[in-house]
Design a protein that fits this description.
alpha/beta, 10 helices, Rossmann fold
Amino acid sequence: MTQQDAHAGALVLFSGGQDSTTCLAWALTRFTRVETIGFDYGQRHRVELERRAALREGLAQCDPRWRDRLGPDHTLPIEALGAISETALTRDAEIAMGADGLPNTFVPGRNLLFLAFAAALAYRRGVVDLVGGMCETDFSGYPDCRNDTIQSMARTLSLGMDRPFVIHTPLMWIDKAATWALAQDLGGAALVDLIVEDTHTCYLGDRNQRFDWGYGCGRCPACDLRAKGWEKFKAAAGSAR
C-alpha cells in the first residue's frame, strides 16, 4: 500500500457475489473511503443485487475500521445490456458452450460497460481507483476478464477522461481456493462465514439449496468453481493444522 493509497478513495464494482465481496474487504483494508457500485442489467441471477445491503452491513460489523471507511452505495440500471444480449445470464436458456468456444453465459461488453460507468461515477466523486473482481485464473474464459483487457481499459478511461484511473484486480492471478484464503486473511472466520451465508454466485439465482460453500443450484459453472475452490481451501486449512 502506498502513502497515496492510504489517504485515497476507491470505488468497488460490487455485485453481491463472492469475488466482489472479497475485493470490497480488500479495498477496505487499503483505502480510507470506499464506495460501491452495482449494476442491474436484467441478469437472471438478480438476487445477487438483493444481497448487497446485508453484505455491506456484515462487512461493517467485521471491523470497526471498515465501518468508518465504507461510503455510499450506488446502483445503476442498464437494462439495455440485457436487452441486446442473447445469453444464458439474461435469458431463460440452458447453459452450454457456444460454437466460438465461450460459454453462453458470456455477456459481450459487460465488464467494459461496467468499468466505463464506474469511471464516470468515480470522476464525479473525485476517485481514480477502481476495484473489480475480474480473474483469469479460475474463470470461464470470458475475454473481458483478462488482465490485458482490464489494463487496456484503464488506459482508455484515463485518456478519455483525462484522469489517472487505476483498475485494481486483487483476484486476477489467484484461483478460487486462494480467494477463500484471501477472505480468511482479510477478515478471519467472520468474513468467510459472511461470504458463505450472504453472497450469491449461482447463475440460476437459486437460493433454495444450502451447501457448505453457500447457496446455489450446485450444478452451474459458477457453483462448480465455488464448490471446488471451497473444497481445496478447506483441505489446505486441514493439512496446515
